[in-house]
Amino acid sequence: MVWIMSFKDATVYCLPTDASDEGIRLRRIVFELCPLGHQNCPRALDDLSEALRACFTQRGSIENIDESIQLHREGLSLCPEGQS
After folding, report:
1. 16-51 in b/e burial notation, b at 16+ Cβ within 10 A?
2. 68 membership: H or E segment, kind and range
3. What pLDDT, in 10s, does the model give residues 49-72?
4. Distance of CA 16 to the CA centre of its chain
5. At what angle do helices 41-59 and 62-78 cross, to 10 degrees?
6. Is there a contact between 39 and 67 (Cβ–Cβ < 8 Å)?
7. Of 33, 31, 55, 53, nearest to 42 (Cα)?
8. Ranges under pLDDT 50 in the chain
């Protein structure tokens, strides 16, 4: 399970961990709604990256693993020094 916090009203939502197209779509939305510089942006990218990695494992699509690696690197670059 992935716990998602609403940036607007601090409501916590729970998304099932899966590699389905819907699961990936929801994680993309969560990341897009995350304000730039917010402390949860790296986590949102990591969650999306992990869903794409799982999708690659299930389906074998090279595009999924390529995007997963790119997003993971981007997420790491957003972490403060020493906290990755």
Report:
1. eebbeeebbebbeebbeebeeeeeebbbbbbbbbbb
2. helix 62-78
3. 999 999 999 999 999 999 999 999
4. 13
5. 160
6. no
7. 31
8. 1-2, 7, 9-12
What does the block give as tokens for 66? 């390529």
Tokens 């693993």 appear where? 65
Fill in the DSSP letter of residue 17.
Answer: -
How does DSSP classify residue 1? -
Residue type, 9: D
Paired residues of 36 in beta bridges? none
Other beta carbons within 10 angstroms of residue 55's beta carbon come to 22
Q: In whole angstroms, what is the distance from residue 6 CA to residue 65 CA?
A: 28
- Three-state helix/strand/coil letters over 44-67: HHHHHHHHHHHHHHHHCCHHHHHH
Amino acid at position 29, single letter:
I
Residue 59's nearest CA partner among 28, 20, 29 is 20
